């Protein structure tokens, strides 16, 4: 019997068209629906046009609404798998947010396209067909939210957009894809070990992300002392070190009770408390800064937005970021 798959469209280039005079934008509201006949051979597909957003317009609040909509659709009708189409710019963020929060135990696949629907070599149709095949495959169960793109399957936690235009943009640095899509089969070769789930009610925390650069001026951060922020993520150098000039401002934020999560600007490896010079990781750890475990900045921000609903104490947040 064919599997029941729900495809939820949220927008992005997969739903856009190119017009020589106007550039790329959502010109044809049927762009994704036109792929439907090609999906029906692989599963019993229901398509729902939920949003038509360029993904730079995505917000954590919209991601949370998407989570609620999926949970509701699932309660209403038991689907065997769910596919979400999404713009690629923030796709990894929505995929990871859903990975942390969605309580639906069927394969959840996120996909999109790098080339618009009427462009030569458009990758949207094949990515969507592959996604439906993956969502309908029982081996996709218990892998968390997965991203299917360019014949590869990636874990939401590790995947990131690595190229501005190439169709092979989604990669999982250091880990690689967890599976591949062949002409006739879906093949998994790894499974994500660490999976986390948080029951949340909203995604309203205000958590900025800042990146360390050489010669950083503390004035760039001082305005944060006047803002109502719930937390802060800092992309540090290398193993987790920062310019000494910004340490007093970070200390003031900590003193105000603002949790600060440290990630690295490097896209391989994780931050650790090794260096003991001023601004070095050991000093940052002593100050109470929370060290994240290999997440990139944009994902650590979402994890902080989510985990702040569980606890606000630095120590407990550190335990959650150890995963
Ligand atoms: N390829 C894409 O989907 C990029 C587009 N700017 C978006 O994220 O909506």
From TrEMBL:
It comes from the Bacteria. Gene3D superfamilies: 3.40.50.40, L-asparaginase, N-terminal domain. The active site is at residues 13, 88. Substrate binds at residues 55, 88-89. InterPro entries: AsnASE_II, Asp/glu_Ase-like_sf, Asparaginase/glutaminase-like, Asparaginase/glutaminase_AS1, Asparaginase/glutaminase_AS2, Asparaginase_C, L-asparaginase_C, L-asparaginase_N. Residues 4-192 form the L-asparaginase N-terminal domain. One of its GO terms (molecular function) is asparaginase activity. SMART domains: Asparaginase. Its EC number is 3.5.1.1. It holds the Pfam family Asparaginase_C. This is asparaginase. Keywords: Hydrolase. Belongs to the asparaginase 1 family. It catalyses: L-asparagine + H2O = L-aspartate + NH4(+). It comes from Brevibacillus formosus. One of its GO terms (biological process) is asparagine metabolic process. Residues 206-321 form the Asparaginase/glutaminase C-terminal domain.
């Amino acid at each position: 019997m064919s599997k029941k798959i729900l495809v939820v469209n949220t927008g992005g280039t997969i739903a856009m068209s190119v017009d020589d005079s106007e550039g790329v934008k959502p010109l044809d509201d049927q762009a994704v629906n036109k792929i439907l006949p090609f999906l029906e051979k692989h599963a019993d597909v229901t398509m729902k046009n939920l949003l038509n957003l360029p993904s730079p317009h995505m917000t954590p609040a919209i991601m949370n609404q998407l989570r609620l909509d999926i949970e509701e659709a699932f309660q209403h009708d038991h689907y065997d798998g769910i596919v979400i189409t999404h713009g690629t710019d923030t796709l990894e963020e929505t995929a990871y947010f859903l990975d942390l929060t969605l309580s639906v135990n069927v394969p959840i696949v996120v996909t999109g396209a790098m080339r618009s629907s009427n462009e030569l070599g458009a990758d949207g149709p094949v990515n969507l067909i592959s996604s439906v095949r993956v969502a309908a495959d029982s081996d996709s169960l218990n892998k968390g939210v997965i991203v299917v793109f360019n014949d590869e399957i990636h874990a939401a936690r590790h995947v990131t957009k690595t190229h501005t235009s190439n169709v092979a943009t989604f990669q999982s640095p250091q880990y690689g894809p967890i599976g591949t899509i062949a002409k006739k089969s879906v093949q998994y070769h790894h499974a994500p070990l660490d999976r986390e789930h948080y029951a949340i009610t909203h995604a309203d925390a205000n958590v900025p992300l800042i990146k360390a650069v050489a010669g950083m001026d503390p004035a760039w951060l001082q305005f944060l002392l006047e803002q109502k922020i719930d937390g802060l993520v800092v992309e540090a150098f290398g193993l987790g070190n920062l310019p000494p000039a910004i340490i007093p401002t970070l200390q003031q934020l900590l003193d105000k009770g603002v949790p600060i999560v440290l990630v690295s600007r490097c896209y391989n490896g994780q931050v650790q408390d090794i260096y003991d010079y001023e601004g070095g990781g050991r000093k940052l750890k002593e100050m109470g800064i929370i060290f994240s475990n290999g997440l990139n900045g944009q994902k650590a921000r979402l994890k902080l937005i989510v985990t702040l609903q569980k606890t606000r104490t630095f120590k407990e947040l550190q335990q959650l970021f150890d995963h």
